[in-house]
Amino acid sequence: MAPIAVTPLSPPSPTLDNTSKLTKAGAETILSKTISNGSPAVADLDASKLIFTRNLSPKNVVAPNSPEVWSQNYTSDHMLTVRWTEQSGWEAPEIRPYGPLSLMPTASVFHYATECFEGMKAYRGFDGKVRLFRPERNARRFLQSATRIALPGFPPEEFLKLLKKFVGVEAPKWVSEPGQFIYLRPTMIATAPAIGIQRPREALLYVMMVMMPSLGDPSAVPPSVTASAGTGSGQAPEAKRLAAAGMRLLASRHDMIRAWPGGFGSAKVGANYGPTLVAQGEARARGYDQILWLFGDECFVTEAGGSNFFVLWKTAQGRTELITAPLGDGVILEGVTRASVLDLVRRTRPDVDVVERKFTMHEIVQAADQGRLIEAFGAGTAFFISPCSDIHFRGVDVSLPLAKGVTADFARAIRQALKDIMYGSQQHEWGVVVEEEKI
């Protein structure tokens, strides 16, 4: 399949449409109190107040696929922090040496899951420039997640200014070679030291950079990297097999539900992830890579692990269709990679019908039985575009063509087209160039 050419699309307006009416009203109340739009009762987030404190004990940069990278806890020299209080609003942001946070044991985040985060990457292009990929979408989702759990709102454009400044400071050292990337984790937590179920009165927004392996690239995983190198569960060899042979999925049982209509599955909050780890551990123990999360007696397909999920099949009428679960009911996350896949296919593949609707595992089984199942893949920041080889569904093994030696050409073409934007091989508005600073 030939590489896909991409044309620009207009970004969506920053709304809170994916929440229920009641939740939306509550979120808008929080926004009205924490974003003053020019007449501040409290201070807005303001990138112009940024303070820089140099790390006088810098770290060494380690090799891209070293054990330190596979440990996924080797950070850059600095982090970005901004404190917020109910009384005063946002304080001056600071880029300062990476290090521990000081929190009281009674802090809200420890007791009531008042925490949200984002996952992003900064890429060193083959043209030498550093880029972020559609960062305005991450900023908008970060705001949505924060207001969903009563954390303070902020002007997304100011957050983006701070993010670009932070990347610009760290990138010359930590993303120095073309084709490299580094992972960014923007986070917000409630920090007020008081037990009691109440809206947070203090919060901390912080961003850190972590060196991460290329989890979807088999060439990036050396055979010498094993569980003893600090990965905890043999993640490196598992990632190598996954990238080469495809992702194996175990469909969730009827008594396991990740998210539900009107809930908080559409917000990127820690409470969405901790409860899934038992099921993920079961999947790994049985030889699978992730759980394919189903919902309801109908077995509606939602997400694969922490990734959005796509199926490419032929309809009974003979049309080629790319299908994924819809937004709007609070069950799935509004993934940046998800949106990019949909935008890309709609613009470049008129022969493929793009459908966002509820669909069931029974439909996948039927398509496989009738020879209509072409490909399936997960889409997210960490594993990027990950083709699926097989799915175990309550006693039934569904094998995709990838498991039989057929190349996942559709997913590979999407992956390459997006990489071309991320690394500057194709100039596109989704690849936002960051100005670097020598410090």
From TrEMBL:
Cited Gene3D superfamilies: 3.30.470.10, D-amino Acid Aminotransferase, subunit A, domain 2 (3.20.10.10)
Enzyme class, broadest EC rank: transferase
GO CC entries: mitochondrion
Chain positions found as N6-(pyridoxal phosphate)lysine: K268
Membrane-spanning parts: none
Record-level GO BP terms: L-leucine biosynthetic process; L-valine biosynthetic process
InterPro entries referenced in this protein's UniProt entry, alphabetically: Aminotrans_IV, Aminotrans_IV_CS, Aminotransferase-like, B_amino_transII, BCAT-like_C, BCAT-like_N
Cofactors named for this entry: pyridoxal 5'-phosphate
Molecular functions (GO terms): L-isoleucine-2-oxoglutarate transaminase activity; L-leucine-2-oxoglutarate transaminase activity; L-valine-2-oxoglutarate transaminase activity
Catalytic function, reaction form: L-valine + 2-oxoglutarate = 3-methyl-2-oxobutanoate + L-glutamate; L-leucine + 2-oxoglutarate = 4-methyl-2-oxopentanoate + L-glutamate; L-isoleucine + 2-oxoglutarate = (S)-3-methyl-2-oxopentanoate + L-glutamate
Enzyme Commission number(s): 2.6.1.42
Keywords attached to this entry: Amino-acid biosynthesis, Aminotransferase, Branched-chain amino acid biosynthesis, Pyridoxal phosphate, Transferase
Family: Belongs to the class-IV pyridoxal-phosphate-dependent aminotransferase family.
Name under which the protein is recorded: Branched-chain-amino-acid aminotransferase
